[in-house]
Design goal:
Elements (H helix, E strand, L loop, with lengths): L1 H6 L2 H13 L3 H29 L3 H9 L1 H36 L9 H10 L1 H20 L2 H28 L4 H9 L8 H14 L6 H6 L8 H29 L10 H12 L2 H38 L3 H15 L1 H5 L20 H28 L1 H9 L9 H31 L2
Helix pairs in contact: 2-10, 2-12, 3-4, 3-10, 3-12, 3-17, 3-19, 4-5, 5-7, 5-14, 5-15, 5-17, 6-13, 7-14, 7-15, 8-12, 8-14, 9-12, 10-17, 13-14, 14-15, 17-18, 17-19
The structure holds phenylalanine.
The site of phenylalanine has 15 residues, from helix 1, helix 2, helix 5, helix 10 and helix 14.
Length: 443
Amino acid sequence: MAAAGSAVGLGNIWRFPYLAGQNGGAAFLLIYLAFILLICFPVLVGEIAIGRHAGLDAYGSYKKIGGKKWGLLGLFGIISVALILSFYNVVAGWAFGYFLEIAFGDLLRQSDFGTFFGNYIQDIGSSFWFSLGFMVITAFIVTRGIQHGIEMANKIMMPLLYIILLGMIVYGITLPNAMSGIRFYLVPELGEIRIQTIFDALRQAFFSLSLGMGALITYGSYVKKDQNVVSSAAIISVADTMVAFLAGLMIFPLVFSVGMQPAEGPPLVFVILPKIFQDMHPFFGRFIGASFFLMLCFAALTSTISMLEVPTAYLVDQKKLPRKKVVWILALVIFIMGIPSMVSQGSPGFEFLNKLGFYQQKDFMTFISDLADISLTVGGCLMCIFISRRWKISQMHEELSIGNEHYRHSFLRSYISFAIGYLCPIILGVLSVLIILDKFVGL
Ligand code: PHE
């Protein structure tokens, strides 16, 4: 449940719909699902297996199985996770702010939500306090040890999130022109597939499953030996993919019913949903709107917790530092790392930050998130190489057979061998190089 909570987050509800919207809808969905099934699932299984086998943090696990040099791969993941958390926490702060402004403020009385959102994220004051608040809550839970706190939150919040999504889907489908949205999202036009669609689907699949940077090694180290890793991985993948799928099914009918463009980009969810809540009965709209953003905050919280846990586990396991102190210091450092992302959203005086985006004019947050994304696919590729060259696939199978009697003779075992040994490292290696050429070299 905790790992599913790590997977389900802003990635599913905020990022997945806007990337799908920018990449032709159904074509993106199709490629995304193929990546989840063929590439991400075996990587997910491998990551948890490493963690459970070694029983340590990301760095410690690689080092214990593969020696000091492989430990560097763990460190690489720990740095990526800190980068992701730095900007993710800013977006979580926006969601937190939206919850408060809908529940207690007059957000739903605005006339133009696009302009409102633009001004909102430029307002350093509120972004600063909301994301600081979010980081403090994250740190507080991590200091108490992750297991009790979040498993509880997940057991209540996840079902509620599903219920709200399903309710919004049913509501959306009754609106005029909703069918155009459904068609956009579910009927692929294969001519729509561009190389960018493939890149974005892969990055998103890795991001959404929290893969490639050691979060699942860390969580895997808490998994008991009598548990079935393969079926846990299946539950995590299905739960995560389901939320992303439902988020898309909710958003696109709404987008088409109000005549907006699906390729709106990052503001999509923040602009479209308030508009829909506004059109509902005032009390009802405020209630549903506030509940929706509250669930989004919980989903984001179980993800930020898992991110902060990665460097924490490293410093506690390896450097024997006290957990509480480590958590608060890391939270502060990562919060400060997020400030450039925060002010890069158009806050006056900080335009220079956005010149760092190499040949493209990107804002700093996009730049950091591109950088973090590429570290996930590279990390995943190296992890497969680690398993097949250093740890050995047969050893991984041994680990996976513990707690799963049928695994030894299953088809899945053969597929995972093939995927970790050949398919994943090749596809991830090639696509990572292409994505780097595209995003950072301008080819
Ligand atoms: N998977 C999370 C989401 O979809 C984000 C995340 C990335 C969490 C990396 C942990 C590590 O929102």
